[in-house]
């Protein structure tokens, strides 16, 4: 025979009720559903992008010894590789930020801490996406000096 003390569940540490744990189908519930779906879809796409990236960089040509400034410049001379790396950057950053956002929501107990951790995450994610996008689109492999002469170390395809 059991006693009442054995069947009683202790009160939770927090009285905060998350909208994502309720049966309410409001905006928060829809956002969490789309975030969950995004993680699955972006994960599959990222596997293809990353393995394609690794294969082209490491298995084709000279392998790891051939990866240098000229190699990157040659790849980014092709708009397909620029797009490939851009999509990989955006998806990786958004996928990772969504995962960290979930961890923050699960483990940060105080609302203020959760808010500031989320703000730091969003600012860092936006900064890396913006800077990475600028690097991809403004990359200039054929650098010249003030006289218009190509700098030393410039890739061979710039001379032609």
From TrEMBL:
Gene3D superfamilies: Fumarate reductase/succinate dehydrogenase, transmembrane subunit. Its main location: membrane. Keywords: Heme, Iron, Membrane, Metal-binding, Transmembrane, Transmembrane helix. Signal peptide: none annotated. Coiled coil: none annotated. Pfam families: Sdh_cyt (PF01127). It is found in: Membrane. The keyword Transmembrane helix applies. The keyword Disulfide bond does not apply. The chain crosses the membrane at residues 33-56, 76-94, 115-139. This is Succinate dehydrogenase. The lineage of its organism: Bacteria, Bacillati, Actinomycetota, Actinomycetes, Micrococcales.
């Amino acid at each position: 025979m059991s006693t009442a003390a054995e069947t009683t569940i202790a009160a939770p540490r927090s009285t905060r009720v998350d909208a994502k744990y309720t049966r309410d189908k409001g905006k928060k519930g829809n956002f969490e559903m789309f975030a969950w779906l995004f993680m699955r879809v972006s994960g599959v796409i990222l596997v293809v992008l990353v393995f394609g990236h690794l294969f082209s960089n490491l298995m084709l040509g000279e392998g790891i010894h051939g990866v240098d400034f000229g190699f990157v410049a040659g790849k980014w001379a092709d708009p397909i590789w620029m797009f490939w790396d851009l999509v990989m950057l955006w998806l990786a950053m958004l996928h990772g930020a969504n995962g960290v956002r979930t961890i923050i929501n699960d483990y940060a107990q105080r609302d203020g801490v959760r808010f500031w951790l989320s703000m730091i995450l969003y600012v860092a994610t936006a900064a890396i996406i913006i800077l990475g996008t600028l690097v991809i689109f403004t990359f200039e492999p054929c650098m010249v000096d003030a006289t218009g002469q190509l700098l030393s170390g410039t890739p061979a395809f710039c001379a032609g």
